[in-house]
Design a protein that fits this description.
It is a single chain. By secondary structure, the chain is an alpha+beta fold. It has a single domain, classed as 3-Layer(aba) Sandwich (Aminopeptidase), CATH 3.40.630.30. The chain is 29% helix and 33% strand. It contains four helices and seven strands, in the order E-H-H-E-E-E-H-E-H-E-E. A hairpin with a 5-residue loop joins strand 6 and strand 7. The longest helix is centred in the middle third of the chain and has 15 residues. The N and C termini lie far apart (32 Å). Bound molecules: coenzyme A.
């Protein structure tokens, strides 16, 4: 696989929605914290977000160069002002066809580098404790478990999973 990791641009939004919906339809997004199909309002939001490229709202994509398909997304958000604005929250998703091949690691390390470059002091993330691949990815990239939320995430089967709150001080 020939992989490129780069910042998202406005015209990537369509392929990000496609990425999301094909993985969502296959049940791959079951621990992601959002459980809806992306639609035209998400497309508009992604376009605006990628075009604006605000300090605290950036996205990195993994793209398979041979198909030009988006195969991974790492998204960051933070408060624009105030005492929490040194903290950035990260989320990550890799296409089900490409799992376990290091794509998530490359994406997340790149996003962490960018977070540091943008002056953030603390990266955070949240994952269901039963989401083994996400928990391993976070730990591999230097996040520590800083807490555990009881019933932090609603699952498709009507039950709830605890979630880990991950933190990493950016040095
Ligand atoms: C979590 C996710 C992004 C990992 O991406 P990935 O490209 O497979 O990650 P990598 O290949 O870089 O592997 C990272 C670590 O996870 C482990 N891992 C990957 N897939 C795994 C699996 N199915 N089962 C167990 N461990 C797994 C790898 O072994 C590696 O850990 P190690 O080096 O300590 O062995 C991907 O599984 C995913 O998109 N899942 C669905 C969406 C999701 O849950 N996102 C996270 C929301 S918090």
């Amino acid at each position: 696989m020939s992989l490129v990791v780069r910042k998202a641009r406005k015209d990537d939004a369509v392929r990000v929605v496609e990425f999301w919906n094909r993985n969502f339809a296959a049940g791959h997004m079951k621990y992601t914290g959002t459980n809806w199909r992306r639609d035209s309002s998400d497309l508009k939001q992604f376009r605006e977000r990628y075009a604006a490229d605000k300090r605290g709202a950036f996205t990195f994509l993994a793209i398979d160069k041979s198909t030009s398909n988006v195969i991974g997304v790492c998204s960051a958000r933070s408060n624009e002002r105030g005492r929490l604005s040194h903290r950035v929250d990260l989320g990550w998703w890799v296409d089900m066809e490409y799992g376990g091949r290091g794509v998530g690691t490359k994406l997340l390390l790149r996003a962490l580098l960018e977070a540091k470059r943008r002056g953030f002091k603390k990266a955070e993330a949240e994952a269901a404790v039963i989401n083994t691949s996400s928990v391993r990815l976070a730990k591999k990239c230097g996040f520590k478990v800083e807490g555990r939320l009881k019933a932090g995430m609603a699952l498709d089967n009507g039950r709830y999973s605890d979630t880990y709150i991950f933190g990493k001080v950016l040095r």
